Amino acid sequence: MSANLSRRRVEKERGFPSFCKKCGEAAKIFTSKTIKNPGRLFHGCPNGSEEDKNHLFKWTDESAVEEIENMKSHLELQSQRCEDVTRSYDKKIEDLGDALAGFGKEMKEMKELVDGYEKDVKNLKKMVVCGVGMMVVYYYFAM
Prior knowledge:
Keywords: Membrane, Metal-binding, Transmembrane, Transmembrane helix, Zinc, Zinc-finger. By secondary structure, the chain is mostly helical. The protein has two helices and three strands, in the order αβββα. The chain is rod-shaped and about 135 Å long.
Protein backbone atom coordinates (compact mmCIF):
# COMPACT_ATOMS: atom_id res chain seq x y z
CA MET A 1 0.00 0.00 0.00
CA SER A 2 2.89 2.36 0.74
CA ALA A 3 4.33 1.91 -2.77
CA ASN A 4 0.88 2.56 -4.29
CA LEU A 5 0.44 5.73 -2.19
CA SER A 6 3.90 7.09 -3.10
CA ARG A 7 3.26 6.34 -6.80
CA ARG A 8 0.00 8.30 -6.64
CA ARG A 9 1.82 11.23 -5.05
CA VAL A 10 4.44 11.24 -7.82
CA GLU A 11 1.71 11.37 -10.47
CA LYS A 12 0.05 14.40 -8.86
CA GLU A 13 0.93 17.77 -10.28
CA ARG A 14 3.00 20.02 -8.05
CA GLY A 15 1.51 23.21 -6.76
CA PHE A 16 -2.10 24.26 -7.02
CA PRO A 17 -4.14 21.87 -9.17
CA SER A 18 -6.29 23.41 -11.87
CA PHE A 19 -8.55 20.51 -12.88
CA CYS A 20 -9.53 16.95 -12.03
CA LYS A 21 -7.61 14.47 -14.18
CA LYS A 22 -10.45 11.94 -13.99
CA CYS A 23 -13.33 14.07 -15.27
CA GLY A 24 -11.70 17.35 -16.38
CA GLU A 25 -13.82 19.45 -14.02
CA ALA A 26 -12.18 22.67 -12.74
CA ALA A 27 -10.68 22.38 -9.25
CA LYS A 28 -12.44 24.18 -6.42
CA ILE A 29 -11.39 24.98 -2.88
CA PHE A 30 -13.35 23.30 -0.09
CA THR A 31 -13.10 23.34 3.70
CA SER A 32 -12.67 20.07 5.55
CA LYS A 33 -15.39 19.29 8.07
CA THR A 34 -13.76 16.14 9.45
CA ILE A 35 -12.74 15.68 13.06
CA LYS A 36 -9.16 14.90 12.01
CA ASN A 37 -8.72 18.07 9.86
CA PRO A 38 -11.43 20.59 10.83
CA GLY A 39 -11.35 23.82 8.82
CA ARG A 40 -8.38 22.70 6.69
CA LEU A 41 -8.65 23.86 3.07
CA PHE A 42 -8.28 21.47 0.17
CA HIS A 43 -8.56 21.52 -3.61
CA GLY A 44 -11.10 19.07 -4.84
CA CYS A 45 -13.29 18.06 -7.72
CA PRO A 46 -16.94 19.03 -7.34
CA ASN A 47 -17.81 15.51 -8.59
CA GLY A 48 -15.63 13.76 -5.99
CA SER A 49 -16.61 12.25 -2.66
CA GLU A 50 -15.01 10.44 0.27
CA GLU A 51 -16.07 7.16 -1.32
CA ASP A 52 -14.69 7.99 -4.80
CA LYS A 53 -10.95 8.51 -4.24
CA ASN A 54 -10.16 8.80 -7.97
CA HIS A 55 -11.27 12.42 -8.26
CA LEU A 56 -9.02 15.34 -7.37
CA PHE A 57 -8.16 15.84 -3.70
CA LYS A 58 -5.16 17.81 -2.51
CA TRP A 59 -4.54 19.78 0.66
CA THR A 60 -4.19 23.48 -0.15
CA ASP A 61 -1.41 24.06 2.40
CA GLU A 62 0.66 21.29 0.79
CA SER A 63 -0.01 22.83 -2.63
CA ALA A 64 1.14 26.20 -1.31
CA VAL A 65 4.39 24.68 -0.01
CA GLU A 66 4.98 23.06 -3.42
CA GLU A 67 4.30 26.37 -5.17
CA ILE A 68 6.83 28.11 -2.91
CA GLU A 69 9.41 25.35 -3.53
CA ASN A 70 8.83 25.68 -7.29
CA MET A 71 9.25 29.46 -7.11
CA LYS A 72 12.36 29.07 -4.97
CA SER A 73 13.93 26.71 -7.53
CA HIS A 74 12.96 29.05 -10.36
CA LEU A 75 14.36 32.08 -8.52
CA GLU A 76 17.61 30.26 -7.74
CA LEU A 77 17.98 29.39 -11.42
CA GLN A 78 17.22 32.99 -12.47
CA SER A 79 19.66 34.28 -9.85
CA GLN A 80 22.39 32.02 -11.23
CA ARG A 81 21.65 33.21 -14.77
CA CYS A 82 21.85 36.84 -13.60
CA GLU A 83 25.20 36.17 -11.94
CA ASP A 84 26.49 34.53 -15.13
CA VAL A 85 25.33 37.49 -17.24
CA THR A 86 26.87 39.93 -14.75
CA ARG A 87 30.22 38.11 -14.88
CA SER A 88 30.05 38.10 -18.67
CA TYR A 89 29.37 41.84 -18.79
CA ASP A 90 32.09 42.53 -16.21
CA LYS A 91 34.57 40.74 -18.50
CA LYS A 92 33.30 42.67 -21.54
CA ILE A 93 33.61 45.98 -19.66
CA GLU A 94 37.14 45.06 -18.61
CA ASP A 95 38.00 44.21 -22.24
CA LEU A 96 36.53 47.54 -23.41
CA GLY A 97 38.61 49.38 -20.81
CA ASP A 98 41.74 47.64 -22.08
CA ALA A 99 40.79 48.51 -25.67
CA LEU A 100 40.24 52.16 -24.73
CA ALA A 101 43.62 52.27 -23.02
CA GLY A 102 45.17 50.87 -26.20
CA PHE A 103 43.36 53.48 -28.31
CA GLY A 104 44.64 56.21 -26.02
CA LYS A 105 48.20 55.01 -26.55
CA GLU A 106 47.66 54.84 -30.32
CA MET A 107 46.22 58.38 -30.35
CA LYS A 108 49.27 59.68 -28.48
CA GLU A 109 51.56 58.00 -31.02
CA MET A 110 49.50 59.44 -33.90
CA LYS A 111 49.69 62.92 -32.38
CA GLU A 112 53.47 62.60 -32.18
CA LEU A 113 53.52 61.54 -35.84
CA VAL A 114 51.32 64.47 -36.84
CA ASP A 115 53.55 66.87 -34.91
CA GLY A 116 56.55 65.42 -36.76
CA TYR A 117 54.76 65.81 -40.10
CA GLU A 118 53.90 69.42 -39.26
CA LYS A 119 57.62 70.15 -38.71
CA ASP A 120 58.44 68.41 -42.00
CA VAL A 121 55.78 70.48 -43.81
CA LYS A 122 57.18 73.71 -42.30
CA ASN A 123 60.69 72.74 -43.40
CA LEU A 124 59.39 71.83 -46.86
CA LYS A 125 57.59 75.17 -47.04
CA LYS A 126 60.81 76.98 -46.14
CA MET A 127 62.66 75.04 -48.83
CA VAL A 128 59.99 75.90 -51.42
CA VAL A 129 60.12 79.59 -50.46
CA CYS A 130 63.90 79.50 -50.63
CA GLY A 131 63.77 77.71 -54.01
CA VAL A 132 61.27 80.21 -55.40
CA GLY A 133 63.42 83.03 -54.06
CA MET A 134 66.49 81.58 -55.73
CA MET A 135 64.56 81.24 -59.02
CA VAL A 136 63.46 84.87 -58.78
CA VAL A 137 67.04 85.98 -58.11
CA TYR A 138 68.35 83.80 -60.94
CA TYR A 139 65.65 85.09 -63.28
CA TYR A 140 66.40 88.69 -62.26
CA PHE A 141 70.15 88.40 -62.76
CA ALA A 142 70.02 86.14 -65.80
CA MET A 143 67.78 88.40 -67.75
